[in-house]
Amino acid sequence: MSISKILEKDFKYIVVCDFEYRHTLGNNPEVVCGVFKELKSGNIIKATGQGLATCPYPINETLFIAFNSNAEAACFLELGWGLMKYVWDLYVINKKLYFGKITNAPGQFGLLRTALRYGITEVMSEQEKINFRDLILNNQEYTDQQLEKIINYCLDDVILTEKLYYRQLGHIEINNQNNIEKVISQNIFHSKALAYTAKVERNGIPVDAELYYDFQVQFPKIKDQLIDNINEKYDIYENGKFNHCKFEKFIKSQKLFNRWPTTNTKKLKIDRKTVYNFSIENEAVAEFRLVQEFVTSQNLRGYQIGKDGRSRCGLNMFGQKTGRTNASPARYPFGGPRWARTFIRPEKGKALVYMDFKSQEPAIQFALSGDENLKAAYESGDIYIYTAQKSGVVPPGATVKISRSFG
Fold this sequence. Notes:
48% of the residues lie in helices and 10% in strands. By secondary structure, it is of the alpha/beta class. The chain has three domains: 3-206, Nucleotidyltransferase, domain 5, CATH 3.30.420; 208-302 and 325-348, no CATH class; 360-406, no CATH class. The strands form three sheets. A five-stranded mixed beta sheet has the order 3-2-1-4-5. Strand 1 and strand 2 (30-38) form a beta hairpin. The longest helix has 32 residues, at 144-175. It is globular and about 75 Å long. The termini are far apart.
């Protein structure tokens, strides 16, 4: 049985959906319109205003098909519908099929280029798409004629997504004839994961906006003060700029010169990883690292604050080959310098907890594989040191600090 037939059997409704919306940095979307095509019946619904008061199809019985469903999920939430329960995301599946196999150029995994990759040539130009987006984003109100054009533009994307859906199913069937049910399950799971990042983005991160904006104004003054303070102790900057010769003298004074790595031009490396590694063992380098992170940032990155005082940005799940999120460091508080996270502040009466999984991937790997060596490495508490010891790269009993002296 084909994938389309299996999905038609499993779901009462199969609906291709797309929304057009206005969006400003840091804020949630303002929905302009939505178009829905139910594939079993061929029925098309175009909705604006009160027509978007409720979802036209029951969420628990519908498979929603979208391209980059994070945007559709964000609109579902903004309209008060809740999240979709079942999603088939053509963007996610295309990433799984092609990421790392084709050039990851800007727009390469967008709707238009993905459609062309599957041999669908009757698509609008990228410039036409930009023109419509400008029309939507640059206006708060629309004439009847403009709104009709926007709805038809949205319908065009729905029709294109439908064509892409069937082409993609054909591609999957050819390459997974003996594993159809498993592939369907995985694709719905991964699609839903991307859609649900919309909930995280919608919540945002609470920020002390007043402090943030005040800091932005005072940034140049603070930067100069930090440079003056570090220069009084170690003399590394000259006229507000980093000086390689002075830095070399500083590293020699700390007796680190013989171990400090160099670039191809024989200058001491000053990338974040190198400086961080030495900052763990040397307090003076740790002081320099703090100033370096601040000065090289040029301005305070990592925040897009909305009108409700919360910072929001796209998490970009599947932005990396592993499927991980890849949020922009310039827009995501946890992507900027660590010191900049002090602007994150919970609302009164609430608390924030910053947590991370330790060695999550190896734990999953040994649980699935049953590999006892991998299990022992995980349970040692530091899989990297354990592996290095087993390989003879570092001596028994080595720690992270000791092992760096061997590197």
